[in-house]
């Protein structure tokens, strides 16, 4: 009896501590886990926890700053989620791995829930590689989408119903109709110009406009749609469930504090591609950006990082094509199989087309999992080159967001844009908020179960 009681107390205390940790972990690192200008300077852990749970952050919404802000213009508060890359179960998947996949969904969901509650982001961007493989059936794609919507990034019904209804219908995606629409639009020049890409002042994709819901942006990753092996089936289901692959959203265009988000499908820039029209279309998007200079700051969101020399990040320059031995189907032979960076020429063209205003800007990418930060400096000869330091007047920071996956520590990227009223320009700031490997989250769940069993045992006997 004594032993059970003692054990019940011990396990309960440990469980309480681990649970306290997993719900308040950002307070241990408040400096990196807060928006730049909402930072509670030099707060201790306890003060930060108190701040989070005892106060409600009134007046702090998507289009306005909370109290004690130094700027009239609302800060940009973008929470970046690097490559979640969720796995699926196959008939051959071992039971323990199935449990691991199941727990992983809730582990990622826990991080999102804690960070969303703490930070109330205006925007959330998943940096591509939502799922772990482009070679899955529509049925599996829908099942992972359901997990994505209900476990990883749950939102109110008003926001999820449109996709959940579609996923639950579980019919093969109608890529043939989509292909006809796409080819017709391409032929008619419909992708040369803003019509297909232009959004203005969007804080919500729906008409519901709930104040606490961030604008959710999904990027294409190679594991979502492939590289040169991308098919209409890939593109159709991604666009239906996760939105367009190329577009911009402009905010306050024409004012002195104009800024925009540009979302770019970097999987369809370098070929060769089995469907070369995807490359034509994406280059038409880049060309449209070049021909429509934007007087403001740009946040460019894209999956694949820009070209950089070896040694700046974990991944150096690398690309390969499918061979007859490793091609997924004959159609893919000789097409782009993978790359670490965009090619040199592509990088020059895209950076020059997007960052024309000379104003501050930032690039955010995913893909390499490790995370990395560099500057692209514009040389007097007009070449963009990467380095760890600012070396030219015109320079753009590139953030490669570290993956949220447990094996990389459950990190989320916190990007603040703040309009400096004196300098009349935007400044961008990025920090990484680390959590911990998924096992600690598991310990919190198992501890709860054990505590309940042991306490019941101690009471019963
Ligand atoms: C997706 O889920 C449905 C319903 O749970 C199931 O019948 C179907 O077999 C799943 N698809 C795959 C590919 O496992
Ligand atoms: C991105 O995915 C989320 C979650 O599934 C969804 O709510 C949102 O509408 C998607 N974004 C777009 C632009 O479709």
From TrEMBL:
InterPro entries: Metallo-depent_PP-like, PGAP5/Cdc1/Ted1. One of its GO terms (cellular component) is membrane. GO terms for biological process: endoplasmic reticulum to Golgi vesicle-mediated transport; GPI anchor biosynthetic process. It comes from the Eukaryota. The chain crosses the membrane at residues 440-460. Keywords: Membrane, Transmembrane, Transmembrane helix. PANTHER family: METALLO PHOSPHOESTERASE RELATED, PROTEIN TED1. This is Calcineurin-like phosphoesterase domain-containing protein. It comes from Kuraishia capsulata CBS 1993. The lineage of its organism: Eukaryota, Fungi, Dikarya, Ascomycota, Saccharomycotina.
């Amino acid at each position: 009896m004594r032993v059970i009681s003692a054990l019940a107390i011990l396990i309960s205390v440990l469980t309480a501590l681990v649970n306290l940790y997993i719900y308040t972990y950002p307070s241990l690192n408040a400096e990196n886990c807060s928006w730049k200008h909402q930072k509670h300077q030099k707060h201790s852990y306890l003060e930060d926890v108190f701040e989070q749970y005892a106060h409600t952050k009134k007046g702090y919404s998507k289009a306005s700053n909370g109290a004690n802000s130094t700027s009239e213009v609302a800060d940009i508060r973008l929470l970046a989620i690097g490559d979640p890359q969720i796995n699926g179960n196959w008939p051959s998947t071992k039971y323990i791995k199935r449990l691991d996949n199941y727990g992983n969904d809730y582990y990622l969901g826990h991080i999102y829930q804690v960070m969303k509650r703490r930070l109330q982001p205006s925007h959330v961007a998943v940096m591509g590689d939502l799922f772990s493989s482009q070679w899955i059936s529509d049925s599996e794609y829908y099942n992972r989408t359901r997990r994505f919507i209900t476990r990883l990034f749950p939102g109110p019904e008003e926001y999820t119903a449109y996709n959940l209804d579609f996923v639950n219908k579980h019919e093969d995606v109608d890529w043939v109709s989509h292909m006809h629409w796409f080819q017709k639009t391409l032929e008619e020049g419909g992708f040369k110009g803003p019509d297909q890409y232009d959004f203005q002042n969007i804080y919500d994709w729906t008409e519901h406009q709930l104040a606490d819901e961030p604008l959710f942006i999904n990027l294409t990753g190679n594991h979502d749609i492939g590289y040169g092996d991308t098919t209409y089936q890939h593109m159709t289901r991604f666009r239906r469930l996760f939105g367009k692959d190329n577009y911009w959203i402009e905010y306050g265009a024409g004012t002195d504090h104009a800024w925009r988000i540009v979302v770019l499908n970097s999987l369809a820039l370098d070929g060769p591609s089995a469907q070369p029209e995807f490359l034509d279309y994406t280059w038409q998007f880049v060309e449209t950006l070049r021909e429509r200079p934007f007087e403001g700051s740009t946040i460019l969101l894209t999956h694949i990082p820009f070209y950089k020399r070896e040694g700046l990040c974990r991944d150096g320059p690398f690309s390969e094509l499918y061979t007859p031995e490793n091609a997924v189907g004959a159609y893919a032979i000789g097409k782009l199989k993978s790359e670490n960076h965009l090619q040199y020429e592509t990088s020059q063209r895209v950076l020059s087309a997007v960052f024309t205003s000379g104003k501050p800007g930032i690039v955010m990418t995913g893909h390499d999992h490790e995370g990395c930060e560099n500057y692209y400096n514009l040389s007097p000869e007009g070449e963009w080159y990467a380095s760890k330091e600012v070396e030219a007047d015109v320079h753009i920071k590139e953030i490669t967001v570290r993956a949220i996956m447990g094996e990389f520590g459950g990190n989320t990227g916190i990007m603040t844009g703040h309009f400096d009223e004196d300098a009349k320009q935007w400044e961008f700031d990025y920090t990484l908020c680390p959590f911990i490997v998924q096992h600690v989250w598991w310990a919190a769940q198992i501890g709860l179960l054990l505590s309940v069993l042991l306490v019941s045992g101690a009471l019963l006997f």
